[in-house]
Design brief:
By secondary structure, this protein is α+β, with helices and mostly antiparallel strands. Helices cover about 40% and strands about 30% of the residues. The longest helix has about 35 residues.
């Protein structure tokens, strides 16, 4: 893919929505292009999570730990895999496997963190977005808890 198409694709990723076109250009220029063949693992559950992939073409199947038969989700172009690994150290919670030929834009944590350091407005926007996501997830979990409590009574 060309630099311009990478910039356009990165601009569609929710986590990167506070990046201006110039900052997306810097990110795209500094990121790496990766190619995967059918059945090849992008990463495995339990691997160290130190980068994220943006799917630029093809599909990626996601499997829970220990499962290799049934994917819980299949994602395609524009999907961000491992977005939180750009911010915090941790392990992969899923195994990602290419379905057919897959191309990704690989963003390493040091690059992303450097951008957050150099552009504090991006960090502030990301903080707001992640905070809203946590509040939303908490609200949904409380709804599930209430349903489970009603079933238990």
């Amino acid at each position: 893919m060309s630099l311009e198409s990478d910039i356009k694709l990165l601009g569609t990723v929710s986590m990167l929505s506070d990046f201006t076109e110039d900052k997306l250009r810097l990110l795209a220029f500094s990121a790496e292009s990766r190619d995967f063949r059918d059945g090849q693992r992008l990463y495995s559950a339990g691997d160290r999570a130190d980068c994220a992939h943006v799917v630029s073409s093809g599909e990626v199947a996601l499997f829970p730990p220990g499962e290799s038969e049934t994917a819980t989700e299949v994602v395609g172009r524009g999907a961000l895999l491992g977005g939180l690994s750009l911010i915090v150290d941790g392990e992969r919670s899923m195994t990602a496997v290419a379905r057919g030929r897959v191309e990704t834009i690989l963003i390493r944590r040091p690059l992303f963190r450097r951008m957050l350091d150099e552009f504090p407005e991006i960090a502030a926007g990301l903080h707001r977005r992640l905070s809203a996501n946590v509040r939303d997830t908490t609200a949904r979990l409380m709804t599930v808890r209430e349903r489970l409590d009603r079933l238990g009574n």
